[in-house]
Amino acid sequence: MDFRSIAHRYSTLLTPNSQTLARAVHAHILTSGFRPSPYILNRLIAVYCKSSNIRYARRVFDKIPQPDIVARTTLLAAYSSAGDVKLAKQVFRATPMSMRDTVSYNAMITAYSHGRDGHAAVWLFVEMKRKGFFPDSFSFSSVLGALSMIADEEKHCKQLHCEVVKCGVGNVTSVLNSLISCYVNCASSPLVSSSLVMGSARKLFDEMHERDELSWTTMIAGYVRSDDLGAARKLLDGMTEKIACAWNAMISGYVQHGFYNAAFELFRKMHLMGIQLDEYTYTSMISAASNAGFYKCGRQVHAYILRTEAQPSEHFILSVHNSLITFYTKCGKVVQAREIFNKMPVKDLVSWNAILSGFVNARCIEEANSIFKEMPERNLLTWTVMVSGLAQNGFGEEALKLFNQMRLEGLEPCDYSYAGAIMSCAVLGSLDNGKQIHSQVVRLGHDSSLSASNALITMYARCGLVESAYTVFLTMPYVDSISWNAMIAALAQHGRGVEAIQLYEQMLKEDILPDRITFLTILSACSHAGLVKEGRHYFDSMSACYDITPGEDHYARLIDLLCRAGLFSEAKNVTDSMPFESGAPIWEALLTGCRIHGNFELGIQAAERLFELMPQHDGTYIILSNMYATLGQWDEVARVRKLMRDRGVKKEPGCSWIEVENMVHVFLVDDAVHPEVQAVYKYLEQLVHEMRKLGYVPDTKFVLHDMESEHKEHALSAHSEKLAVVYGIMKLPLGATIRIFKNLRICGDCHNAFKFISKVVGREIVVRDRKRFHHFKNGQCSCGNYW
DNA sequence: GTAGGGTTAG
């Protein structure tokens, strides 16, 4: 067979799906010196482009001495869909003016549009007209897509609408679809009245002579985007054709707005009506199940897919499995999620990010870390998930390090990333860092972001500056229930229970619905302030007014509230009426109350139960041993100590820290490590002398009970919180508030001592311990000794 | 040779 006939056969066989043949032809060209016609070369480029083999396409292209406009446009379009605007532009620029035509302009406009550069696209559209090219329906579809990105006023859409009509494509369905989509996008701009613009879109839709799948889908998705689910549903119900995309848009709208039951109802209807369910339907439904916590429903969807999809496409497998990973992790089934992830034949970035955040949410930080290291590629989301995951799990330092590293790698953090960094500062109590990040947030315009601002509220509160937290809260352009919860929690942690309750009441007045977290917060606010009646009232309102079933955590806080107030019989009534067995949180609350009120009988009972439920928890042993010590039952003290030793339980060492000039200084009990600790001891000695003059008597009871301190007199002055406070007095500017942090609860003697210190040195001391804040000022503590 | 919608990761 000669070359000519081979060429002929190739040209008929080179369909877009014949990649193998394309390689054969290519090889033939390279090895035999065969010079195919431009037509064959163009086909070859097209086949390579179709199969995303752009590098081969480029090699063929570069071999052509004078590529024609078809070859150039094919390559340009391939770069465009691969998202490589730079190379697309290169090809376009290299095309001589005399060769260019409308199609090549259209392709380049689309390339800009894919590269999210709406201005460049519109500019090229204008240039193309100036150069005398007449825009066709493709030009309008492309430029309208670009315009959607930059138009924030209806008049922009209207302008192009006029041109569409002038150019005679005002009746072309595809152009009208793009135009509708343009109006729809514009409707989400804050500068326009959404209902007015949606009205214009709808008018176009109603006046169309012919509506295709896209018209219906665009219009329905448009209503969904402008939060008008009712209009979307009405349109869907009036649709006679069976258009899966339109149904998918509606379902996804329900899911995004949290109407999970409506989504499932529509899903069933879709199935009953015989509309083809596809990966888009399934992913939405699975995500509905994960968000709503409908484990059974999700399993059913999963099982249904396995039963019905015999030949799923690669795209189907990928997207469905990606959403399944999230589903299983959100339902607490990390093992299943991992299994699905491991078995996936092809993984993309979404899969990796899904499993990563699954581990992060399940608090499996080690696994998350190894996934993060293993990932073949990372994006902004990856880093953000990891930063906030580390922060949420208490690894503030690691989180901040990672945040800085992501910036070094040239990634521009988004508001969520900043929220993670701010939370790290909250965990560390690093006000200097927090303030710095706050100013960056403002500079970058992220201060209107909910996630960043909510994190700022928490950060300021946890660094001891409730007023700054309040300022953030009050200056937010809009707030959500998380903002309210954060602010109420801020007041609660600082013992300002009455204000916390007032804020909660205001939240109700503003028609914000409280959630489970709100009640946890408000109950502990009542607990810290001794507001028993109010606490009971709010607890009862949960199921009565808000249809929220109190969980074990809510019961535990109620019991904490009652026991702190010494109401043990009431607490018992509550535990008896609980719909479940008392777990560890309940017994812990009881034990805390018993410790405060010296109710040893019940306390010992609670402690013994806790030994069974969480044998590795150091706190129980310490409280129990202290109780026995107070009773003088030294045999029992010894027994508890032995039990602790035998079980290998280690007491978490007390440690306190303070920030001075952007540096965190850490002190341990009996610290000998900090370079300036000798000076600190010396200063403390002088201070105690002054304090004694005012009536301070060291309370040796606390030493007696401290299982780690063998040397009484010294141990008292060597508690880490004292060292940190003294260091602050020595190093911070005169009059500045001393803010220190402790990993455990503050010791009773230190609490007493700080009252005296605040008076002697005339400074405010703020202590954040494991549970709450203490503000010492002028010999008083804000907790009113109720802690 | 060129366009436009519905999904999954916080």
Automatic annotation (TrEMBL):
<feature type="domain" description="DYW">
    <location>
        <begin position="695"/>
        <end position="787"/>
    </location>
</feature>
<dbReference type="Pfam" id="PF20431">
    <property type="entry name" value="E_motif"/>
</dbReference>
<dbReference type="InterPro" id="IPR002885">
    <property type="entry name" value="PPR_rpt"/>
</dbReference>
<feature type="repeat" description="PPR">
    <location>
        <begin position="101"/>
        <end position="135"/>
    </location>
</feature>
<comment type="similarity">
    <text>Belongs to the PPR family. PCMP-H subfamily.</text>
</comment>
<keyword id="KW-0677">Repeat</keyword>
<protein>
    <recommendedName>
        <fullName>DYW domain-containing protein</fullName>
    </recommendedName>
</protein>
<dbReference type="GO" id="GO:0008270">
    <property type="term" value="F:zinc ion binding"/>
</dbReference>
<dbReference type="InterPro" id="IPR032867">
    <property type="entry name" value="DYW_dom"/>
</dbReference>
<feature type="repeat" description="PPR">
    <location>
        <begin position="379"/>
        <end position="413"/>
    </location>
</feature>
<dbReference type="Pfam" id="PF01535">
    <property type="entry name" value="PPR"/>
</dbReference>
<feature type="repeat" description="PPR">
    <location>
        <begin position="212"/>
        <end position="242"/>
    </location>
</feature>
<dbReference type="Pfam" id="PF14432">
    <property type="entry name" value="DYW_deaminase"/>
</dbReference>
<dbReference type="GO" id="GO:0009451">
    <property type="term" value="P:RNA modification"/>
</dbReference>
<dbReference type="Pfam" id="PF13041">
    <property type="entry name" value="PPR_2"/>
</dbReference>
<feature type="repeat" description="PPR">
    <location>
        <begin position="480"/>
        <end position="514"/>
    </location>
</feature>
<feature type="repeat" description="PPR">
    <location>
        <begin position="243"/>
        <end position="277"/>
    </location>
</feature>
<dbReference type="InterPro" id="IPR046960">
    <property type="entry name" value="PPR_At4g14850-like_plant"/>
</dbReference>
<dbReference type="InterPro" id="IPR011990">
    <property type="entry name" value="TPR-like_helical_dom_sf"/>
</dbReference>
<feature type="repeat" description="PPR">
    <location>
        <begin position="348"/>
        <end position="378"/>
    </location>
</feature>
<dbReference type="InterPro" id="IPR046848">
    <property type="entry name" value="E_motif"/>
</dbReference>
<dbReference type="GO" id="GO:0003723">
    <property type="term" value="F:RNA binding"/>
</dbReference>
